[in-house]
Amino acid sequence: MRGLWLENRKLTYREDLPMPEPPEGEALIRVRLAGICATDLEMVRGYYPFTGVLGHEFVGEVVRAPSAPEWEGKRVVGEINVTCGHCAQCLAGRPTHCENRTVLGILGRNGVFAEYTTLPVANLLPVPDNVPDEKAVFTEPLAAAMEIQEQVHVHPTDKVLVVGAGRLGQLIAWSLTLTGAEVYAVVRRERQRALLEPYGVTCLTSEEVPHWAMDVVVEATGTPGGLALAKEAVHPRGTIVLKSTYAGEAKVRLSPWVVDEVHVVGSRCGPFAPALRHMEAGRLDPRTLIDAEYPLEEGLAAFEHAAQRGVFKVLLRP
Amino acid sequence: MRGLWLENRKLTYREDLPMPEPPEGEALIRVRLAGICATDLEMVRGYYPFTGVLGHEFVGEVVRAPSAPEWEGKRVVGEINVTCGHCAQCLAGRPTHCENRTVLGILGRNGVFAEYTTLPVANLLPVPDNVPDEKAVFTEPLAAAMEIQEQVHVHPTDKVLVVGAGRLGQLIAWSLTLTGAEVYAVVRRERQRALLEPYGVTCLTSEEVPHWAMDVVVEATGTPGGLALAKEAVHPRGTIVLKSTYAGEAKVRLSPWVVDEVHVVGSRCGPFAPALRHMEAGRLDPRTLIDAEYPLEEGLAAFEHAAQRGVFKVLLRP
């Protein structure tokens, strides 16, 4: 099988990967289209040790599902956390924090930058017919954006700021406008602004960010500077959502967090079904984020492209 | 007037301070007893620039209140934030975050380590007869402890850990037991343990703190090590309350906050009335925390005493 293999921080294109065999309860899935995200780029830089097929954003087609043959032939997306169902976190209703979890292309489980992958049938969701592959491949990052609304009650009368208007920041800002809130985003490039404006997001430069004006600020840059800007913008007792991959240690002045009694919430994977509903209803169209599509054979070039500044989404077609 | 004056990080005992004159709406208060807290010690170390009479924990007696003579002669405690009532924060129901606030002995307003002080009548609360001065002087720090329950819903079935069992940590742990929750505290000294046990708090050494076991962790040490221990103890999606004075910058690994989706809440001043109700009902008796009482003239010695490791509360009697 062809695929992109990560080992010792080195990503290689290989044609000798074994064809995966679905374990009990899992489905064999042919990957139709996959997306490269910031976590993939960080993993190649060594953010997290992982050996295997990289990649977790995908849309595919079920080839074989011995335990649930009704899924065969269906076009699907899949929740990336594979959980045990019996640990303390699973039993407490926090399955994405399962103590024994594997995570597609991230932790203990081969991912989707390959011709085929496997996932439990329980993780799969059918893709509505009117959602083409080029939209469906954004289900995972859009679900991650929706996690913010699972965690924080965003009121229709709130002022919300998104710091960072890249790949994920765009999906976050767009989805937040659906709450009815006033949504602002910090932009650095004209294209970021152009992508945000159809959704009614007000674009600001970092110098224009008002002091203590926001009820909720989403930090999507993964940088100490972004976090400082978020703290500047949020009002006392407001909420900062950390929605990014933070490498290493950050220097943080905690005293203003205490004095101004801010809430800081870490935010990771989110619910797939609401993301699919938004795309099925046409409330969001992530295809405007696509910069390029590469065949799997040119995966290393695709990674180089995705790592360039100002690039949004690069797709891989196996 | 006699008092302790802070200027350029230097604390001096002075006998030449002018007698304060209460402005419109304020009362002149004779200080009966005052307490030294960690913030006072940090301010002498330069945590925050302030020139004036230091001190904000007190119980006193109203000498003169031209706008509300019914208060004269009453024994009182007082909310330390003096607010404008018309800024965005006041109008949003966050008066302790008033943009134009002065804070007793901390910001733009002389404090209570003196014979007399002034506060708006609106800030005063009468002290119940059965609460002696030696208890009432703890109203402000106990109110700060109660702020945690204003901000976080602590369930009766929760497991709660307090990291740091000093002055404030004790009041926090004691007050949290009144929720019915299982309360744990990290202790370093035998006396910390002895003070906690009557309240049914389970004492742990830092090595005994369990991984991912707590619903809520209160960080009351103000150190990066305490924060790391709090992160270790809280379960995914649990809450860490920052309840301390953090000087300078801390190095924090933010990535585990994101991956485990923890909530972090800064917590400062709290409500006085519930603190007084707890003491009036005898649910808490902070007098066990008193290590020493000094006359105002020996205030500098009192500060030296309060700064020693393992010392709880040092009081000043003007």
Topology:
The structure is a homodimer of 318-residue chains.
Chain A lengths: L2 E5 L2 E5 L11 E11 L1 H7 L7 E2 L3 E8 L10 E4 L2 E2 L5 H4 L10 E2 L12 E5 L3 E3 L6 H4 L2 H13 L7 E5 L3 H11 L4 E5 L3 H7 L5 E3 L9 E6 L4 H10 E9 L7 E3 L2 H5 L3 E4 L5 H9 L9 E6 L3 H8 L6 E5 L1
Parallel strand pairs in A: 11-12, 11-14, 12-13, 14-15, 15-17, 18-19
Antiparallel strand pairs in A: 1-2, 1-4, 3-5, 3-9, 3-19, 5-6, 6-10, 7-8
Helix pairs in contact in A: 4-5, 4-9
Give unreliable regions of chain A as ranges.
none
**Distance between the ends of chain A:** 10 Å
In CATH terms, what is the fold-level topology of the largest domain in chain A? Quinone Oxidoreductase, Chain A, domain 1
Question: What's the number of domains of chain A?
Answer: 2
The ordered H/E elements of chain A are: EEEHEEEEHEEEHHEHEHEEHEEHEHEHE
Summarize the largest interface: chains and residue counts. A-B, 39 and 39 residues
Query: What is the gyration radius of chain A calculated from CA atoms?
Result: 19 Å
Superfamily at the CATH H level of the largest domain in chain A? Medium-chain alcohol dehydrogenases, catalytic domain
The chain-level structural class of chain A is alpha/beta
**Mean pLDDT over the full residue set of chain A:** 96
Please work out how many helical segments of chain A DSSP would assign: 10
The level-1 CATH class of the largest domain in chain A: Alpha Beta
| Oligomeric state, counting identical vs distinct chains | homodimer
Number of strand segments of chain A: 19
Query: Helical proportion of chain A?
Result: 10-25%
Shape of chain A: globular
SS strand fraction of chain A = 25-35%
Main beta-sheet annotation of chain A = 7 strands, mixed
Which architecture of the largest domain in chain A does the CATH hierarchy give at level 2? Alpha-Beta Complex
